Amino acid sequence: MAAFHSANAIFPVGYRASRIYWSTRQGNHRCRYLCSVEENEGQPEFVVRMIEQGYDDLVLTGASPKGVWDKILEPVADRRNESGTLKLFPVYLKGEDLFGFTVTAVTRIVESLPGVEACDRYTFRFGRNPLMELPLAINPTGSARSEPKACSHVKRPHTLSSTGIVSSKSMQTVGSVGVVDAPEEVIPKQFASVPFQYRRMKAEWKSNVYLARSRIQGLGLYAARDIESHTMVIEYIGTLIRNEVANRMEKMYESQNRGVYMFRLDSEHVVDATITGGPARYINHSCAPNCIAEAVSLERGDKIIISSCRNIQRGEELCYDYKFDLEDDQHKIPCHCGAVNCRKWMN
User: Fold this and answer.
1) Cα–Cα separations (whole angstroms), residue 186 to 189, 192, 266, 294, 304
2) Shortest CA distance to 33 belongs to which of 115, 106, 130, 99?
3) Backbone φ, ψ for residue 344 (5° rounding)
């Protein structure tokens, strides 16, 4: 990690970003720049691929973000001078900014990655997460090699289920007892104006949560601000697939040693967030949850929404009950939520 960070940015290997910037070939034209970070003999290699219609792709590399972008900024400044447009001052442009390392959302995620505590020269913008300063694990046998292989994730089978379906048209709740019409005067706050709440949540969810290390398991999602009870926080998004496809995909993910992130939407469909999913998939299970998962029926189809079931303070980890089906002792998944009323098992 010593070579993969500076005082202003962390450079994770595998980082990819797409940027739109001025062309080096034509004045007053823009093109796409694909930025990435690779490893070359233990040192970071910064790669920028220039993609412009009508021209061959140009690949540039450098030992620093500034170094590789200087190869672009100088020709850009020349083209702008030739076309008489506003003058560009390359010396004042930072490579970290052009790579996107200093974007707030990117910085939050990068500062939550495992191993960043070794970045001794880096100045954390959002504060060193205290959850990263966890004690070392104790090996009962005295040797890590003799311990059973630790699983890097908790398997989340697609039997994750919601509390029911909330319809924005008829305001009906669908549960195990059937369909119950809710009279207007007793409609709970969380069921009122469902389309409005959904649109507001879609516009504000990035300011509601942030990703960080979790005491419960791996990464977790945290409240970025105080959240009132019965507030839509974030949508559980992914690829909508049928049960048969979900069963095949789950076996494939297990063969690849991937974590399985699936959520059952109804009796026939499953939302698969393993590959193409949002941050909601990192919300951990708790026996004393502060959120609930609801299947909300809108004009565009059913959506899985994570809503607060009580007031949540800023910095508090979001969690909900996975509602796994009960299994026999051989297939039990231990629960690490640490709640007073913890059931010790998730299923």
Assistant:
1) 9, 10, 26, 18, 23
2) 99
3) 75, -25
Which pTM does this prediction carry?
0.50
Q: Helix, strand or coil for residue 269?
A: strand
For 262-283, b where at least 16 C-beta lie within 10 A, e where not — what string?
bbbbeeebbbbbbeebebbbbb
DSSP tag of 194: H
Residue with tokens 């560009």: 88
Name the E strands within the chain.
16-22, 30-40, 43-51, 58-62, 165-167, 172-175, 178-181, 209-213, 219-223, 232-236, 239-242, 262-264, 269-272, 284-285, 291-298, 301-308, 319-320
Tell me the per-residue pLDDT of 246-288, one tens digit each, with 9 for 90 and over: 889 888 888 887 778 888 888 888 888 888 788 888 899 889 8
φ/ψ of 97, rounded to 5, equals -70, -40
Q: Which pLDDT band holds residue 199 (cuts at 50, 70, 90)?
A: confident
